[in-house]
Design goal:
The complex is a heterodimer of chains A (about 300) and B (about 350). By secondary structure, chain A is an alpha/beta fold. Helix content of chain A is about 35%, strand content about 20%. Chain A has a 6-stranded mixed β-sheet with strand order 6-7-8-3-9-10, with helices on both faces. Chain A has a 4-stranded antiparallel β-sheet with strand order 2-1-4-5, with helices on one face. At the A-B interface, helix 2, helix 3 and helix 5 of A face helix 8, helix 9, helix 10 and helix 11 of B.
Chain lengths: ~300, ~350
């Protein structure tokens, strides 16, 4: 756990048709932490996610995201381009603050912010493996001209040079194989390896949630936003997801921010909570127990 | 559903993998899907033999099925063009009749006004089509689904009106007769019907190769993702609008092959062949045959071209046949949507 910031939100406001959904929100997130956003429905939680990821425009305020220059950019990490310099050099460029207030959603995703959606939006017609492979963006290749090249040897060799993948590893003939390997790694991480050949729509709801997590991992996002990751899953899956979250931030290079209504899940994680109510976040981050001690919150939020 | 006892490792299970086994360069030549290209030949000739045996007039000239084959190939190429936009990306386009028509007229412009040979005229038609597609896609790509469809229909109407009324250039409803037969590379003068068959097959093979490469590429995956869930694709860093503009341009370029072929094959073109009705006809190819994959296009084009022939074989007078064809199309579509929404051989179901 470091003291480095990853996201800073200042004076963020948003209203829909004169209904003020967020008012002068001020949040600062650190790297390598897990944060939970809790609050009554309609407090603006999903709106906050939509604003951070650039899906809807902001009324006022700034959001600054700290991008990792060194880690990204090899083989379609956030940024999606093949690196011209190997990672590790020019460390002072690490943690660049970037103002993402005005950026489009795909630009923000390329910087390293990923999110899941309420209710599991996966690509129903693709297999699980394809779903995960999709998450890795290859900007140089995804255009109608370069499909005529089949092996992209130059890009593959550049990737091998950048990541030090030599003859020790299993030899990959083309980028598709490489993508497939990486996707299988991610599926192993969440435990969906057995079903990777199934169509995504055949999976159970809980498995689809895991698939959404695997996709975010494949995209190598630095800031992961989860919208209700345990909504509608049984406690066994919820525990599994809690384990996965802990594993994800264990290296200290990713941050998780999630919206949740399930208090047990948050207690299992023991993470800091952000209580959002009517567009305001009146207190800084505290552990869940501390927030629950506040009788007013208990009354408004938990109804006790 | 997940079968707990079936622990087939996903690495070796290629049944539903899009990647399939890695082929050596030699086996790549013998991929089964290239046998699809023989399908038009086979079906057309079977149809010819069948109808000739059972008809009173007996065997007609061999040119007759060859003529049908050229038209079928033209419509297969159009089928690929619409399949790219509608079947793979999910953008319903009722404007491909316009692209078809524009490329036909531009080919004629090249051949008869600029007096350039056929292949340069074809390239001119392809580039012009792509340019015109920008005129459609750039304003309307941001519109939500239904409004996008309306915008494309609007484009189709505008193009038809221009072709019909700009008589100074297009001769309007009189059409343009006497289109010269193509001479390729200064060597091959295409005149006989069988030569047109070869030419149409060359174009078809080129389009087919491109399309099958796209089907298995990363770009193809992105495109299919846009069809499934645009928002998620954007949240994964893809510039969705740019992809859509690309797809529209490529689709229009593919349609140009058909337009150029048709112009030099029929040697007469007029605006009525390129109106909204034609656009609907083109959509039928993938709705009936199947969208979202390669083989659906072949079956669809064969169906829509051979059905009128079948009616003629059943001795319907032409006046009745034309209307009956439309009625039958409608009925078949309704039945298909009820029992097999993916079309006869399709992969994707519009819900």
């Amino acid at each position: 756990m470091t003291n480095r910031h990853i996201l800073t939100i200042k004076n963020l406001s948003k209203s829909f048709d004169k209904v003020e959904v967020l008012k002068n929100l001020k949040i600062s997130l650190g790297l390598g932490e897990i944060y939970a956003i809790i609050g009554p429905n309609g407090a603006g939680k999903t709106t906050l996610f939509n604003l951070i990821t650039g899906i809807i425009p902001k009324d006022a305020g700034t959001i600054v995201f700290y991008k990792d220059e060194t880690k990204q950019k090899f083989f379609g990490g956030p940024g999606g381009e093949f690196s011209k310099k190997p990672p590790g050099r020019r460390r002072h460029e690490n943690n660049l603050p970037i103002d993402i207030t005005k950026k489009k959603s795909y630009e923000i995703a390329r910087l390293g912010i990923g999110r899941t959606f309420q209710g599991n939006r996966v690509f129903a017609n693709m297999t699980v493996l394809e779903n995960v492979m999709f998450a890795r963006q290859l900007v140089e290749i995804e255009n109608p001209i370069s499909i005529m090249k089949s092996t992209h040897k130059k890009l593959l060799n550049q990737h091998k040079k950048n990541t030090g993948l030599t003859a020790g590893e299993k030899e990959v003939k083309n980028l598709e194989e490489l993508l497939k390997q990486e996707a299988e790694q991610r599926l192993d991480f969440v435990g969906l390896r057995e079903v990777s050949a199934h169509k995504a729509e055949e999976l159970s709801y809980g498995q689809q949630k895991l698939l959404a997590i695997a996709r975010l991992l494949m995209a190598d996002s630095r800031l992961l936003l989860f919208d209700e990751p345990t909504a509608g899953v049984n406690p066994k899956y919820a525990a599994r997801i809690a384990e996965i979250f802990k594993k994800i931030v264990s290296k200290g290079d990713k941050t998780i921010l999630f919206i949740e209504h399930d208090m047990k899940f948050i207690q299992a994680l023991g993470c800091k909570c952000l209580y959002l109510e009517a567009g305001r976040c009146p207190w800084p981050f505290f552990e869940l127990e501390v927030i629950m001690k506040n009788p007013e919150i208990r009354r408004k939020f938990m109804g006790m | 559903m997940t079968n707990a006892t079936n622990h087939q490792s996903p690495i070796t299970d290629h049944s539903s993998s899009p990647l399939g086994p890695s082929p050596s360069p030699l086996t790549r030549l013998y991929r089964w899907k290239y046998s699809l290209l023989l399908l038009p030949l086979l079906v057309t000739f079977l149809f010819y033999i069948f109808t000739s045996i059972f008809s009173a007039a007996g065997f007609r000239s061999i040119n007759y099925p060859l003529h049908m084959l050229v038209m079928i190939n033209i419509y297969i190429i159009l089928g690929f063009s619409i399949n790219l936009v509608t079947g793979y990306t999910g953008l319903l386009s009722l404007g491909h009749g316009a692209f078809y028509g524009i490329s036909a007229y531009i080919t004629v412009l090249g051949l008869m006004v600029l007096k350039i040979p056929f292949l340069p005229a074809l390239i001119l038609a392809i580039l012009f089509n792509m340019l015109i597609s920008l005129l459609v896609s750039l304003p309307s790509i941001r519109l939500k689904q239904d409004y996008f469809v309306l915008a494309v229909i609007g484009f189709q109407m505008v193009v038809y009106t221009i072709l019909y009324n700009w008589t100074g250039v297009t001769r309007g409803p009189y059409g343009i007769p006497g289109i010269p037969r193509p001479k390729l590379l200064g060597l091959w003068q295409v005149g006989e019907v069988w030569e047109y068959v070869v030419l149409s097959y060359i174009f078809l093979i080129l389009v087919f190769i491109y399309f099958s490469k796209l089907d298995r590429s990363s770009f193809g995956r992105v495109i299919k993702g846009i069809r499934d869930d645009e928002l998620v694709v954007a949240s994964m860093g893809r510039n969705v609008n740019l992809m859509k503009v690309y797809i529209f341009a490529i689709s229009a370029g593919i349609a140009a092959f058909s337009g150029a072929l048709f112009a030099v094959f029929a040697t007469y073109i007029d605006p009525t062949s390129f109106g909204l009705e034609e656009s609907i006809f083109i959509i039928m190819i993938i709705f009936i045959g199947g969208s979202g994959n390669l083989k659906g296009v072949f079956w669809g084009a064969l169906f829509v071209e051979l059905l009128p022939e079948m009616l003629r074989f059943l001795q319907m007078p032409d006046a009745v046949a034309a209307n009956l064809r439309q009625i039958l199309f409608g009925l078949i579509l309704i039945v298909l949507m009820r029992f097999k929404p993916t079309g006869f051989a399709g992969d994707y179901d519009y819900d």
